[in-house]
C-alpha cells in the first residue's frame, strides 16, 4: 500500500480513530444483546424475558417453599416480592447464608415452563459484604413484612 | 501516641509534596532556578515519611491496638500474625495509605537515580508527581484517616473477611499497587515532557524502565489475583470480568501498549504524541479503577466501604488529573513535531497494529464496565459479564495474536513480506496441527479452537527472532521479548483449554461412594470435623486415582469462621503435568431413606495451570528486559564517570604543569 509520506500522521490518526470508534460501536451493539437485566418477580411475571437470555432475578426466598430434590444437589424454591411468585431451580453448592426468608439474587435463565433456572446464587455473605442488589431486597422484605 | 505520630508524619509528607510541587514549578521560571536544588531531596524525604506512616499503621495492626478505629473494625487479636500485617491493607484507609506510600517511594526513587533527562524536564516530572500525590494525601487526610481513634476501645476487633484471610492477600494488593501507582511515574514523565516540550527518544528511554517495572508488578499481580480467585472462591473460574478485575486489566492493557510504543519512540523516534498520550492514559486507568472499586458504586469483594463522600472525592481527583492532563496534551500535542516515517510493512507498522488493538480492547472493557452505571442512571439495572466481554474482546485479540506471530520478525522502517514468509511455514504448520488435534478430540466452539491453534503457534513463532543468532550471545532484551511473547501463547493455550476440556461433576455422595470425573475416580473416604486458629471446619477426605494410577488424597473443607461469623468453602487442588483436579465440599443433605450425603463439586481441568505459568513467563520476560536496560544504563554511567575522572586528571595535570611553569 503506497501511502504518501506527507500524510502519514493523518493516516495513522485515521486508523486509530476508525478502530476505536469501531470498537465503541461494536461494544454498544453487543451490550444491547448481552447485558443481563435485573428483574424482581413482579416484572418477570408481567414481562417475561426471552427464554434463552441471561438475566438476574432478585427477591425473598418464600418461607416454606424450599424443597430439596432427591439427587441431593438440586433445590427448588420460590422467589417473591410480595406481588408475584417465581419458582426457581438451582443445582450446586449453596451460599452459606442462603435460607428461607432471606434475600437472594439468582443469575440464570427463565425456562419455557416458567421455572427460573439459576446457575449462580448471590446471598448475603456477612454483615459487611452485601451484594448491592440485596440492599434493594431489604426494602422489598420490609414491604412484605408490612403486608402481614 | 503512635497513631498521632503516624498522622503527623502524613501531614508532614503532604506538606513536603506541596513544597515539591512549588519548588519544581518555580525552578522552571526565570527567577526560580535556585529552587531546583531542593526538589530531589524533598521528594526523597516525602517518600520516606509516607513509608514511616505506613510502618506505624502496620505496627498498630500487629499490636492489635483497638483504640484505633481501623484496627478495631478490621482486625482481631486471635488472627495469625501474617493476616494481621496483611489486614493493614485489607481495608479502604490502609490500602489508600499503601497507595500514597508507593507513590511517594516511587517519586523518591526517581529523584534519587534518574539523571538521563534534562534537569528542567526532571523538575517538571517531579512537580507533576507531587501534584498527583497531593490529591491523594488530601483524600487520605480529609476523607479516609487511617489513624482515627475509637473511644471507648472495644474488647476485641471485628476481624477480617475470611475470603481475605489467605496468604495470597499478603502479596496480591501490594504487588498490584506497585503496578498501578508505578504508572504514576510514567504519567509524571509524560507531563514533564509535555511541559518542557522534550518528547523524544531520550524521554522514551528514560521512561521505559519505570513503565517496565510497573508493568511487571501489574502482570504478576493480575496473575496472582486470578489464581487467588480460582482457588479461593471455589467456583472453578479464573477470570470473571468482575469490575475489579477489569480495573486491573485496563491499566495493564494501556501499559502494554505504552511499553511497545515507547520502544518505537526510543528506537526510531516515531509515535511521539501517541506515546505521551498512552503515558497519560495508563495511570488514568489506574485512577478510574480505584474510583470504581473504592467508591462502592460497583459490588465486589474489594469494595470495602460504601461512602458517597469518598466516591465524590475520588471523582473530583479524577476530573482534575485526567482532565488536566488531557487539556495539557491538547494544548501541546500540536507542538510535538512529527516523528520519523515508516512503511506499513515494518516493525513499526506491526507495533502500531498492536497498539490500536490493545487500545480497542481497553475501550471495550471500559465501556462494558461503565455501562451498568449509565443504565442505572436511566433507571434500568443491568450487569455485564462474560457473554459480552469474551467474544467482543476476542474480536480484537485474535487479529493481534496473528500479527504477533510475524511482527517481531519484521525489520524497522521498511520490510517485505516475501522476506519473512518462508519462516512463517513453521508456526503455520503448528497452528494447523494443534487446531486439527483439537477438532479431532471434539472441540467445536470457535474461540477455544482458535486459542488452541494460535497458542502453540505463538510459542513457536516467539523463538523465531532468535534464528541465526548464538543463543548465548543474543542480547538479554531480545530474550525478554521472546519469553514474554511465548508466555502469551502458553497462557492462551491454558485459557482455551479451560473452556474446551473442563469436565465438571456435581453430586451428593455417601461416605465410601466413588465418582468418576474425566479420567479421575474419586472416593469420599470420610468427612470429619477439624479446628483451626480462628475457625472450625468439616473436612472431606477424598482418595483420587488418575486413570487407575496411584492414590492421592485431597482435603476440601467447609470452614466456619467466628470473627466475623461466616462460612466459606476451601477447595482442594491436585496438579498433574497435564492439568488440575479441583474439589469443593458443600453441605450435608439427607436422602429419602435418611442416609447422610455430602455435596461434592469436582472438576478436571486439563492444562489450565498454563494460564498462570504463561502469566509468570510474561512477567519473567519483562524482568529480563528490565535487567538489560538497567545494566546498559549502569554501564553508561560508569563509562561516563570514568571519562569524567580522566578529564579531571588531565585537567589536574595541565594545571600542575601550569603551576610548575609558573614556579620556573
Short description:
Helices cover 33% and strands 28% of the residues of chain A. The termini of chain A are far apart. Chain A has 148 residues and is α+β, with helices and mostly antiparallel strands.
Mean pLDDT over the full residue set of chain A: 80
Given the C-alpha coordinates, what overall shape of chain B results? Answer: globular
- What is the residue-mean pLDDT of chain B, rounded to a whole number? 89
Which stretches of chain B are poorly predicted, pLDDT < 50 over at least 5 residues? 300-305
The CATH architecture of the largest domain in chain A would be Beta Barrel
Shape of chain A: elongated
Could you state the oligomeric state of the chains shown?
heterodimer
* Measured distance between first and last alpha carbons of chain A: 75 Å
Radius of gyration of chain B equals 28 Å
Strand order of the largest sheet of chain A: 2-4-5-7-6
Give the H and E element order of chain B.
Answer: HHHHHHHHHHHHEHHHHHEEEEEEEEEEH
Biggest interface: A-B, 45 and 56 residues
Strand composition percent of chain B: 5-15%
CATH topology-level name of the largest domain in chain A: OB fold (Dihydrolipoamide Acetyltransferase, E2P)
